[in-house]
């Protein structure tokens, strides 16, 4: 259930003492599934900012940018 996953992902970010790139990556993937493309891009950018050396996060960011309305 994507809506339930969304709630859990948001909660994980909210209760985390330290921002975790993996949490943002997961949230972005859920938003993408829910067709909230621009939001997915913005959240994935946060994952990349937190962990810039992660190539997987960077690749996802490029895909999200390509298929969302974000320039």
Description:
- The chain has 4 helices and no strands.
- α2 packs antiparallel against α3 and α3 packs antiparallel against α4.
- It is mainly α and 71 residues long.
- The relative contact order is 0.16.
- The chain is 76% helix and 0% strand.
Report the β-strand fraction as a percent range. under 5%
Rounded Rg: 11 Å
> What is the ordering of alpha helices and beta strands?
HHHH
Oligomer: single chain
Give the averaged pLDDT, no decimals.
Answer: 95
Taken from the alpha-carbon principal axes, the silhouette is flat
Helix tally?
4
Low-confidence stretches: none
Distance between the termini: 30 Å
Helix share, percent: over 70%
Quantity of strands, as a count = 0
Largest beta sheet, briefly? Answer: none
């Amino acid at each position: 259930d994507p809506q339930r996953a969304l709630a859990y992902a948001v909660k994980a970010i909210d209760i985390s003492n330290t921002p975790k790139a993996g949490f943002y990556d997961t949230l972005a993937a859920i938003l993408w599934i829910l067709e909230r493309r621009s939001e997915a891009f913005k959240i994935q950018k946060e994952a990349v900012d937190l962990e810039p050396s992660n190539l997987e996060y960077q690749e996802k960011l490029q895909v999200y940018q390509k298929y969302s309305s974000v320039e």
